[in-house]
Amino acid sequence: QVQLVESGGGLVQPGGSLRLSCAASGFIFSIYGMNWFRQAPGKEREWVAAISSTGSITNYLDSVKGRFTISKDNARNTVYLQMNSLKPEDTAVYYCHADRTNYWGQGTQVTVSS
Question: What's the pLDDT at 31?
């Protein structure tokens, strides 16, 4: 069956970095674009970043541009989110999602706090 499993979240100080991973299985990963979303407590889930199926095109939420980088390794069926210069407002549960599907991971918590 389809699985998306996120990992790499944790507690980090402001200005720090984290790298999230999302391992996919059960579908042809290489033909799907992928997204990262996040949901902070009491807020709606928001889209953060997207990458095309081949990894050649990326897009970002304005507030994370220049700080976050999405990448995709089709040989490893994995999508990544490198997060640098983290801010307290980046605190949220982060989810990966396969484009044009209802495939979601279970989420990984990212907490930015001193």
Answer: 96
